[in-house]
Amino acid sequence: MLKILTVFGTRPEAVKMAPLVQELNRRPDQIRSLVAVTAQHREMLDQVLQLFDIQPDYDLNIMQQGQTLYDVTVRALEGLKEVLIKSNPDLVLVHGDTTTTFVAALAAYYRQIPVGHVEAGLRTHNKYSPFPEEMNRHLTGALAEYHFAPTQQAMQNLLKENVNPDNIFVTGNTVIDALKATVKENYVFTDPLLNKIDFGRQRVLLVTTHRRENLGQPMREIYLALKEIAETYPDVAVVFPVHKNPAVRRVALEILGHLPRVHLIEPLQYEPFINLMQRCHLVLTDSGGLQEEAPALGKPVLVLRHTTERPEAVAAGTVKLVGTEREVVLAVTKQLLDNPQAYRAMAEAVNPYGDGQASRRIVDFLCYKFHLADRPPEEFWPQK
């Protein structure tokens, strides 16, 4: 029996690890699956746990008002020490690039427990962008034994860093697994405002912004571009789930709060957000994960950042890296609104991030590595 402890702490991690936890739970004859959450983000994490019916075996509940990266790091490291002593797993699985991810890998390393890194190998090669995620991912990779790269490009990044090729496996991204289980054709929103939007007649722009490096003037530039778009196109509506950070909310309300077809709403839970994205026309975001999710639904993505750790999407044509300057954001958005051919080129491009089978591949690979299966599974190759 292989004992695997899966550790995560934020909503994005939970979304991407939930289908993997479910896959582990489908192998009770081979695997004992345990889950630990740091609750680095409490409320948003709980929403995903409920949606995917995951009950953690260990909950550190570390979130505090006004917490800093120092606070999260110290509390998670101390808490996970005790979890690892109690659970004594054969393997720890972590995901991506959060502080929880890096700290869990470090805690496992201190106890000489191998680490499997899901969504490994993404790189911008700028340690301050995204911050602190780029270095969290680098450091986790240095500590990990097994590297589950979502794409061939991510695998190449790891090979350039001299990672043992026998321990790299290309899986696709587990977020596509989660997405396919969540989109519903006749989904009804609990928010009456969203149910009133005529998605058939209005072109809805879905907007999210939250990155630390965009706070201040970059966000003002983005919101001024959105203001001009809303004032120029009468058939365009903007739906903007506004991050709870006061620095984001203050500027969003100042610039966009008075516009009739700009809807500033509270952050959405994962299920309504994904179903909103499925109905929108275009996504503008500084998020990393949406660069993978939206193209799976045929939605072009304009990335409001100057760097991306997901160059495969840029190369595939599913996203455009536009930065934060008002004139650039405005020009590229107008191009997609005015030019149906340019829009279709992005909407119909092949998403390079997965086929919904990443979780199965990861568990099959681990079963092979731990001598519970005779042969490894086939790696993920995107369709041409």
From TrEMBL:
Keywords: Isomerase. SUPFAM superfamilies: UDP-Glycosyltransferase/glycogen phosphorylase (SSF53756). PANTHER family: UDP-N-ACETYLGLUCOSAMINE 2-EPIMERASE. One of its GO terms (molecular function) is UDP-N-acetylglucosamine 2-epimerase activity. InterPro entries: UDP_GlcNAc_Epimerase_2_dom (IPR003331), WecB-like (IPR029767). Residues 23-366 form the UDP-N-acetylglucosamine 2-epimerase domain. Its EC number is 5.1.3.14. This is UDP-N-acetylglucosamine 2-epimerase (non-hydrolyzing). Belongs to the UDP-N-acetylglucosamine 2-epimerase family. Pfam families: Epimerase_2. Coiled coil: none annotated. It is an enzyme of class 5 (isomerase). It comes from Desulforamulus hydrothermalis Lam5 = DSM 18033.
